Amino acid sequence: MNRKWIYSSVMTAAFGLLAGSCGNRLRTVEFEGICADDANGTYGLYNPGRGFRLETALDVAMDKDRPEKQLKELSVKYAADSVSLSQSYFYLTFLADKKLTEADFATMQAYFDELQRQGKKAVLRFAYEKDFMGRSPIGPTAEQILRHLDQLKPILHANKDLILVVQAGLIGAWGEWHSSIHGLENSTEAKRAILEKLLSIVPEEKNIQVRVPEYKNILKDKPELYRRISFHDDFIVIRPDRWDGDMHEGTANFNQIVKESPYLVVDGELPWGFWSVGADPDSPSAGWIIDGMQAARRLFLQHFTSLSVIHNYKEQHSNNRFDESNPPRYSMIVWKETMINEDSLKRYKMPVSSGYFHLKNGKQTERSVFDYIRDHLGYRLELQSLQMPATLKSGEENLLKLTLINRGFATVFGEHSIHPVLIDTTGHVTELAAAPVNPMDWQPSDPADPECTPLLHTIELPCKLPQNIIPGNYRLGLWIADASERLKYDSRYAIRCANGNITWTIADKGRYGINVLTEIEVE
Predict the structure, then answer these.
(1) Is 208 helix (H, G, I), strand (E, B) or coil?
(2) What pLDDT digit, counting tens, does each position of 134-163 carry?
(3) What is the DSSP string of 286-349?
(4) How confident is the model at residue 9 (pLDDT cuts 50, 70, 90)?
(5) CA gap 118, 439 in Å, rounded
(6) Is the distance from CB of 243 to CB of 209 less than 8 angstroms?
(7) E strands present in 115-162
(8) Phi and psi at residue 473, in whole multiples of 5°?
């Protein structure tokens, strides 16, 4: 596979008309995917709002002096795994019968501030009870939960740009809607009231995730609320099990998630490795390695955006200290040793990124199932080609046409601002007007297409230069920024495209994360 820029000469008459307004011939640039032997080709492509996630727990009453501690520690431990998300438990355990105070909100805000310092976003869950099978000594009533939710609305809206999705939580052990001390999971009235209250306080552009579809179906009579409810599968084990929420393949629950997930943020996790692999040799689950290829297929079929990188990987428990040099053989460790190829994915109609299973010389290679899942959770934007005038002219409408394929499992969620930019020889960035494009439309394939044929998306980028721009040579870039005012000029929240012949540039002291497409002359 030879690497080169391909430039066109005079195009067809139709393209000539397109360029005619600029008095300019057209030029085409072709892009390639990332090959295994590209620079960092086997490392994860860090991108915001997708991929592996951490799992952190903040006890709002007890952790006031160290709200950032666990987030900092785990971020270091999983730094090599391209993590841009953290499932963030905010435990209100000792506050159930109390009104939340300014000190409580300051503790939560300190955690959000640390998320922003790290360039991450939250998969947010509020919970009360930390123990299982009714062993929790305290727990909230439905009325206490509803009162707290009214209080929580302002902090959710103040930090909405740092929140990818909110999990329903609140009820029962770990907020998983079972084993609550007051039996709230047995009351449809309580569950409905809590869901409706959550949907009223969480910013309307955000999804609420529930554990199993039956909880979502409580609000089937209210379509405007129902459409915002998504799923988090907290027990991905592939083969049927009594704890899997009846969500294994072939069930109505499984099929409902497959049908609705293309338009929703979906999250999940494997069970703990010490349980499934089995510290207890007499346990019926001992030695249970979750099948990596079938897990990848599940994540693909149900359009997962994120997955815990904590469970069944580098776990650390009081009776199990993780040793990097001799890690326990949990499922994800085995996934790293399980190799797959292009044919094994095409068999299941799963996405195959261009060059992913090739070296730069064209020879085929294999990749591990761990790497494949890491790289394809959520979106993976692979640019295909760029059509543009051979030179850009100031004061005129220079139209650029960019095509891309989303090779990921899911579309892009959240609000983004998409700009062409010019970088001069000193590194100064000239922002051009944002394109009227919504990346949430960039589905990997038509959800109604049983063949899962990759969709080719075309983006038109009007490129009107300022009158006073200095003529000369520039680098032309694509800047996909977070639309939030406080995150827009933080390069860690900009989207990086999955192309080996595109340079990723951090410009202006980290204000811009830019996909450099080509060089261009400005007249």
Answers:
(1) strand
(2) 455 789 999 999 999 999 999 999 999 999
(3) TT-PPPHHHHHHHHHHTTBSEEESTTTTS--BTTB---TTS----HHHHHHH-EE-HHHHHTTT
(4) very low
(5) 24
(6) no
(7) 121-127
(8) -95, 135
List the structure tokens of 486: 């406080």
Structure tokens at 226: 């129902």
Token pair 């969500």: residue = 247
Q: For 214, phi and psi rounded to 5 degrees?
A: -60, -30
Q: For tokens 């795994």, name the residue.
A: 81
Answer whether residue 6 shows pLDDT above 70.
no
Residue 363 neighbours by CB under 8 Å, 6+ apart: none
Q: Which residues are within 8 A (CB) of 311 and not within 5 positions of it... i.e. 6 or more apart? A: 55, 269, 270, 271, 272, 273
Partners of 402 in the β-ladder: 386, 459
Length of the chain: 523
- Segment 114-132 mean pLDDT: 93
Structure tokens belonging to residue 123:
């998969």
Distance CA 6, CA 31 (A): 9
pLDDT digit string, tens, across residues 462-484: 899 998 899 999 999 999 999 99
| DSSP-H helix ranges across 202-251 | 213-216, 223-226
User: Among 29, 23, 31, 6, which residue's Cα sits nearest to residue 392?
Assistant: 23
Residue type at 448? A
Amino acid (1-letter code) at residue 404: L
- Structural contact between residues 330 and 309, judged by C-beta atoms closer than 8 angstroms: no
CA distance to 119, 301, 445, 506, per residue, from 510 (Å): 12, 36, 33, 6
| Residue 309, C-beta contacts closer than 8 angstroms, at least 6 positions apart | 52, 53, 54, 78, 81, 83, 332
Torsion of CA 133, 136, 141, 144, to 10 degrees: -140
Which one, of 245, 227, 228, 226, lies nearest residue 236 by Cα? 245
Residue keyed to tokens 């439905």: 142
**Assign residue 487 a region: left if phi > 0, alpha if psi is -120 to 50, beta otherwise?**
alpha
Compute the chain's Rg from CA coordinates. Answer: 24
The pTM assigned to this predicted structure is 0.92
- Name the residue among 504, 502, 500 with its Cα closest to residue 513: 504
What pairs with residue 29 in β-bridges? 386
Cβ atoms < 10 Å from Cβ of 296? 25
d(Cα 493, Cα 489) in Å, to the nearest integer?
8
Contacts of 489 (CB under 8 A, 6+ apart): 481, 511, 512
- The whole-number average pLDDT for the span 281-288 is 60
> Stretch 180-205: mean pLDDT, rounded?
97
The sign of the torsion formed by the CA atoms of 249, 251, 256, 257 equals negative
Confidence at 40, pLDDT banded by 50, 70, 90: confident
The token pair at 20 is: 């005619």
DSSP 466: P
Domains of the chain: 13-30+379-522 (2.60.40), 51-346 (3.20.20)
Count of beta carbons in the 10 Å neighbourhood of residue 100 = 19
